[in-house]
Amino acid sequence: MPTFRYSAFRGDGSAASGSVEADSLQDARQLLKREGLYPKELTEANGSTGGRVGVFRRKRVSLPDLALMTRRLSTLLGSSVPVFEAITTLHQQEAPGELKEILYRVRTRLAEGSNLARALAGEPAVFSESYVSMVAAGEASGALEVILDRLADFLEDQEAVRSRIISSLAYPALMVLVGSGIMLFLLAFVIPKIVVIFEQNKAALPLITVLLIKTSTLLRTGWPVLLAAGAAAVYGYRKLIRRETVRFRRDTWLLRLPLIGPLTSKLVLSRFARILGLLMASGVPVIRALEITGEVVVNRRYRTALAGARLELAEGGSLSSSLRDPELFPPMLVHMVAVGERGGTLEEMLAKAGAAFEKEFVTAVTRFMALLEPMLVLAMGVAVGTVVVAVLLPIFQLNQLVR
Known about the structure:
By secondary structure, this protein is mainly alpha-helical.
């Protein structure tokens, strides 16, 4: 009988992994389902990946669509509509697409007797562990519509931040694209035609012109080598970045960069405080909430620090004392957490801290982009000016020789 390895979610949103024996892949799925496990990855023990399920087989649902669906579900449940009927209504009104198929599968699981958290846990590519855990806590507390409303607010705030970042990067990215295109056009098509004039003259060329000619020649004749080198670099980076040690070093290095580091830190702290506060306000125990938050935080340096904080909490420590690394957690955050622990308002303090860091991040991005735009204009001017000077200097020398 074949053995299948699995990575799955339990009904409460927690992760599980192991192996199971079954006659086929479908039988393995049914066996896990009867045990209350919903696989996100299921492969044969011999390494076959034909049964893999999850993110890589499905299209992702956009954050605005997920937020809108969550808001609608909260509204329906707040109007005393049963969960199954609410999911059915959302499925019927949803336009054809990935989300409609997901709602159909969720409705099917509900019809088979699953609660909403277990039904959503079967779609890990769309509903994160934090999402499922908050839904499970809402079902247990009887305040599901309130928690879904908070979730919708959080998702909408995250989308607003993402939209601001994209809007801020749009103009600089366009400038870089246009500037690079102009330089490539000059080096690949304009410079070679001018070089013919210089080659007919035996006069010595200025160093800047010689370097420009060599760069143009390299682009025209060596572009296959450059493309191959670029592809090899990308492939090598992707191979290396799969190692956790390499990812940890990369994330640590990013935090130490002059401009990128503070921006990354503010973004990570914003997500950490808001998600942890939201989980705790939804009734998720603090240690479990900290574990989920650590998985949501993408920076490995912060993830390692939060794992240590979770262990310290399990041993009886306080959250404020476990966040004592001043390089990662600013004193303001630690102080607000300590005040919240003493006053019993930790969730509220975390929400305020998350909002404060989010505002600081948006302000810092705005200032950075305001500084970046004139720097890009200056860089483009210097690059084009260098080409112009490299072309005009030999022409001036030719004029002097003619005279």
